[in-house]
Design a protein that fits this description.
- This protein is of the alpha+beta class.
- The protein has a single domain, classed as Response regulator (Rossmann fold).
- It is built from four helices and two strands, in the order E-H-E-H-H-H.
Length: 95
Amino acid sequence: MPTVTKIAVLVHPPVRSTGPILEELQGVAQVLGIQRQILAVYDPGGLEPAFDTAVRGGGWGTPRPASLLFALHQNQLAALAVSHRLPAIYYNVSL
């Protein structure tokens, strides 16, 4: 998507791999000229506010590093992506 200039990235900070993944993503984002909007989510109650913040901040899409929190709430994440009109990829979701 050549018009993308900013992406919203959902992260669950307690996950150990979050830091290295964000560093790698920063490198890719710099090469592509894309800004990252990092949105920390600590519990299911933080999912909807994170999507609201992503939309207000002009974020496009919601990539997210792997996390048990996100895996357990895939259906909610997918529904939020649809309701906020943000592109996302999820597996085994039933809406």
